[in-house]
Amino acid sequence: MAKGVRFHEVGAPEVLRWESVDVGEPGPGEVRIRHVAVGLNFADTYFRTGLYPAALPAGMGVEAAGVIEALGPGVTGFAEGDRVTYTGSPLGAYSTERVMDAAPLIRLPDAIPFETAAAMTMRGLTTAYLLRRVADLRTGDTVLLHAAAGGVGLLFIQWAALLGITVIGTVSTDEKAEIARAHGCTHTIVYRREDVAARVRELTDGAGVPVVFDSIGRTTVPSSLDSLSRRGLLVCFGTSSGPIPPIDAMQLAVKGSLFVTRPALADYIADPAERAALAGELFDHVGSGRITVEINQRYALEDAVTAHRDLESGCSVGSSVFCLDSAAA
């Protein structure tokens, strides 16, 4: 019998339950997948707490890697036994197996292990669209990145270096600052004891940066805006500290004709051709070793409560995954 993590009410990590689930057979356009590794993302907590709405009871998780075990009618481009990875709705990735639409699936190259795929598909594609689609960045540019030692942060730093982009990264501790620098972060700011915007101005000779990438939200948006150069762009792509506060449009003018965007990964991988292009570039960098994926936390799927506690405590570094079948990875 398949098993999975579900929640019947929103709240703290303790609402997550390890339950038996009836998977069934795939219908038209669907496949049945046996998961080998499942991604753990901060966005998962948004569903659990109710920040992102979900019809209850619901499964948990949007990212996993595994093997196709059965095809429904009309599925083309895939075969039983194919190694695949995916990220995106609907919820239900925290499971040993599931039936789902084949459309979001991405064929996984043999050179990339399942655990690596589960740790990087969402984070890697997020990094890809941030650096390759959202902002018009050029070699020699300097940007500010919050949460530089996180899962997206460590991938972003490495990819930015390949593009010749200098990263100023914020972190919570000296230990995380050391990790970020080891991955190519040129400058680090320990935000708990330093004024972020003042330090950014100092590092840029008073000019500020053309782009700030902010996944923190409520607590960082003010300093992010104050770190931008004239006509700079604030990219808010996460809200780990809480919802983004209201932004006074007139203040954008006063601070230098600034721009603000709140992109979502779903809108950058909705088109199959664009998803394939971004995934191809990501897989090429990882498969060649130009970008390494740091998996520093591994959990059993039935330990989802502990995993969510760790995630929200801020003690996690790099990526986290649930491991279901180490022999197959």
From TrEMBL:
Keyword NADP set for record: yes
Keyword Oxidoreductase: yes
Keywords: NADP, Oxidoreductase
Gene3D superfamilies referenced in this protein's UniProt entry, alphabetically: Medium-chain alcohol dehydrogenases, catalytic domain (3.90.180.10), NAD(P)-binding Rossmann-like Domain (3.40.50.720)
Coiled-coil regions listed: none
CDD domains: QOR2
Domain Enoyl reductase (ER): 11-322
The protein's name: Quinone oxidoreductase
Organism of this sequence: Pseudonocardia yuanmonensis
Higher taxonomy: Bacteria, Bacillati, Actinomycetota, Actinomycetes, Pseudonocardiales
